[in-house]
Task: inverse folding
């Protein structure tokens, strides 16, 4: 009798366990890429977006430093100007206390008209001889009368004649008498002559104005100050403007001021 061959069943459990152990020790390399070629990220919406680093903004300080320098420069400049003004005021106060300056005085003593004619072409030609007295009441201050002066005689806004004062030095407590010749010509003077005649007939006086602009330099002791301008305005009331006739000055008053 033929012997029966025993077939031993294969241990499937052990083989499966060995296969699993083999798979754990040597993971299978996927053959299909997780991310398709040409794509930078996965199309799956559940994946997180790539991390983006935020670069902080750094504020620079140089503009603030420039503003600070400008503010300091402005403060120093204003302080220097204020200091100079303060020193100038103190110096002026000391000079006033030491020298006690007073304003000069002026008066019109005489007015003589040598020419006051209306020509055939209605032009008025006038020549005045004016005597001006200038008084310097200061004990320690002298006055240098510089060139470039201008003196004129006016009637109702019309200049009749002009001239200039001579250059001279007026010492302490000095009185100087000046004889000045003024001449001028006015065109279309028919209306002016009519107004003068009417003024004389109604009031018996003719109001004139004499204006003087005189550059001067004040001398205090041994110091000469900067050049300033004397401005003198005098009002004259005369009885007539006839040529070669005695002219009486009924009233005379002068105002004085100086400018830089």
Result:
């Amino acid at each position: 009798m033929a012997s029966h061959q025993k077939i031993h069943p294969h241990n499937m459990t052990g083989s499966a366990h060995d296969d699993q152990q083999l798979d754990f020790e040597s993971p299978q390399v996927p053959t299909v890429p997780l991310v398709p070629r040409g794509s930078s990220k996965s199309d799956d919406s559940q994946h997180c977006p790539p991390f983006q680093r935020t670069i902080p903004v750094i504020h620079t300080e140089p503009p603030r430093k420039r503003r600070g320098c400008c503010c300091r420069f402005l403060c120093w400049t204003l302080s220097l100007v204020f200091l100079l003004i303060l020193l100038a005021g103190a110096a002026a106060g000391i000079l006033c206390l030491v020298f006690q300056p007073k304003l000069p005085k002026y008066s019109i003593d005489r007015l003589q008209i040598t020419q006051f004619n209306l020509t055939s072409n209605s032009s008025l030609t006038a020549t005045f001889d004016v005597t001006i007295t200038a008084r310097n009441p200061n004990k320690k201050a002298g006055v240098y009368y510089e060139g470039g002066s201008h003196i004129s005689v006016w009637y109702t806004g019309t200049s009749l004649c002009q001239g200039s004062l001579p250059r001279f030095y007026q010492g302490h407590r000095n009185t100087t008498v000046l004889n000045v010749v003024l001449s001028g010509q006015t065109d279309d003077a028919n209306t002016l002559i009519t107004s003068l005649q009417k003024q004389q007939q109604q009031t018996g006086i003719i109001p004139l104005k004499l204006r003087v602009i005189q550059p001067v330099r004040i001398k205090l002791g041994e110091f000469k100050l900067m050049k300033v301008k004397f401005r003198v305005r005098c009002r004259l009331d005369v009885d007539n403007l006839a040529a070669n006739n005695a002219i009486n000055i009924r009233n005379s008053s002068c105002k004085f001021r100086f400018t830089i």
Observations:
- Residues 1-5, 7-26 have pLDDT under 50 and may be disordered.
- The chain has three helices and ten strands.
